[in-house]
Amino acid sequence: MAALCESFTLCGLGPSGAVGLGGGLLALEPGPDPDHVLLTDRGRTATLFKVSDQKPLGCWSVKHGQIITCPVVCNFETHEYIAVHDDKVLRIWKNKDINLDKVFKATLSADVYRIHSLPNGGPVVLFKGGGVRTLDVLLEAPQQEIENIISDEIIKWSEAFMEGQQPVLIFATEKDGDFFVYVQKLKMNSLHKYKLEQQELSRPLSFTAYIKNQIITLLCLYSNDSVYEVLMPLQQNSEEEQILSKSLLLKLSVSGSVLKGTSFVVLDKDHIAILGSLAAPGEESKECLTIWNTKFQTLQTSKELPLGTSGQLWCYEEKFFFTHGKVLTVMMYKCETSSLAAAVGKLKDSQTPDVSSFVDWNTLADEELVVSFQSEQSVALKSESKMTLRSKRNTVAKVQPDTLSVGQILLNLKDASTTVFENELRQLVSKAQMPDFQASIGCVITALIKRCKTNPKYYPQNLLLHIVETRDLSYSLCPDLMAVALEKKDVHLLQICLQRFPDIPEEITYVCLKVFLSISEAYLQTTDVNLESVISYTDVEFNNKEVKTEIVENGFNAELEHDIWNTKITKETHPMADGELCPVGPQKAALLNAVLQSAYSEAFLLPHLKNLPAQQAVLFLRYLYYLYVKCSEKINTTLPGTRCPTISQIMDWMCLLLDAHFTVMVMLPEAKELLSNLHKFVRAQVRFYSELNKIEGSLQELQRRNHERDSQTYSIEVLEFI
């Protein structure tokens, strides 16, 4: 039994995408950790992503005019990254490296086709002429001559494996319509060449292979909508070219529909996944991802992809990776031991786990939901076939809470009234024991968001708040939640999401910041916002933007303070120009504090922050300056209260905002005085801490003397600080 589960977006691929893969995706390779993948675009950039958080961990680019010509891979033994640009230039770097111009470089003597990295065998380099070298051997003499084995043939596909301690490289070539397969055993320095048996009126489109029991199994996806299997013994005595015969493994047709496959991967010994276009007679073809059972020749499951794909499919750690529209999508899947009952959809509930908790109403059609629950519903229908209508209703009401899966409940409630819908979901969320609990809660939120989109007047704010506040969720489990909250201007829900979600994309963080800065103070006074992060250091009574603050001097003398502010300091309020009066109301301050404490990557937030309107940037900088002054007033440089931003977070955001808008702020008249005051305040603090550093040695000496003094003896000592 195989099933497609929940999916999520890893990153955007368009010009405004998260990693700027505007030229499309060249390849996806595993990273140094099972949760990491390396993306290489068709241009200059390679990006390392953490899949579970949808967060980029690093991004490297070659110079303008240079092009990465084969997929970037990770050396699993050294945790280094290897790239080839302009066919012959090899680059090797580590995570800490930023500028690829300054990392290791070697110019090779021949063009590289691809580098394969093996977990226990190191990187293997395949050249376009068919020559093969391990990376270690190649680095000993980068300009060594590389033999040309395949003459006029063109390499179409390659893969590397470990058979015991022996690295094995397989690659397929094409010349004048004929296809050849080469098997290279590196340690034994042996190469065997095979010719694929020709197929009339069709040709191979894609290859994949695996090794088991000294037998290489090569699978070929042909243009006649079929998958063929070719077996090759790893141990081969004859060095002559042999013709490989193939056998039909799978015909890609079901109920009159034919799948035109573009790429495929092997999942286990009985299942393969194929990406392609499914066409029925008289209907328009639809791109979809399918899983087939090769043992019983059946289509197990499919997922329509209406936004289109690039035809590329990758599979790592039980996850599919493919482009869908302008994003790179990750989809989970499950494969179980193949049996005839599972293959034809007749497996009983006790034999199959519930996969309905991964149902996504945004992506799964109703008929797909029905298919996934087919066996459960068929059992229920058989048991009810002889009951009266009233007894049926009683049975359904009695069975539903205990036996129905999350997906079935959501499907049954799709057309229910608003009251019934919310009541059932509240009961569902309150269940302590639930399989795949986090994913199930994500499905509940997705169902609520789906209904919001269907009915614009419907918005269950209280229920959404309750779920987010009481359950440990993440942005990736419910990616549409914050988008709907932004559309509804639900600042309270946005505030809670910013505080609780650990994986919010930088683009969403920026949009929240922009919305918070643009909303009027009058509107915010009518909304419910959590003020716990500001109530301890501001007066929550909002009156003409005056917020009284408690001032505690932190070691500054009166002359120094007068030099900084050029005005007399009072104990209650301060002039607006001097920056000590909070420039925003308490509600807006609490929302901005939530933004300040959210996780982000500076490299990916900065491009978005540059789009912030100048007036909003100045207002935000005024508030950051206000917080900076407030922190500096306290001896421990921390704000009182809970969920307050730290001085490090405040300074990081201040530096980031100045990096994004410094030129604009220098030109704005209303910002000049703010920048001047900020400069004076920072200069005064540097001067103050410099003075403290001067007496640090004396204070340490005093502390040492205190420890040495006899506590029983009374004395008066005079210490002179020079």
Automatic annotation (TrEMBL):
Record has Lyase as a keyword: no
Annotated compartments: Nucleus, Nucleolus
Name of this chain's protein: NOL11 protein
GO biological process: maturation of SSU-rRNA
Organism, scientific name: Uria aalge (Common mure)
UniProt entry keywords in alphabetical sequence: Activator, Nucleus, rRNA processing, Transcription, Transcription regulation
Nucleolar protein 11 C-terminal domain location: 409-720
Predominant place of localization: nucleus
PANTHER family named in the record: NUCLEOLAR PROTEIN 11 (PTHR15633)
Database matches in InterPro entries: NOL11, Nol11_C, NOL11_N, WD40_repeat_dom_sf
SUPFAM superfamilies recorded: WD40 repeat-like
Gene: Nol11
Any Gene Ontology CC annotation: nucleolus
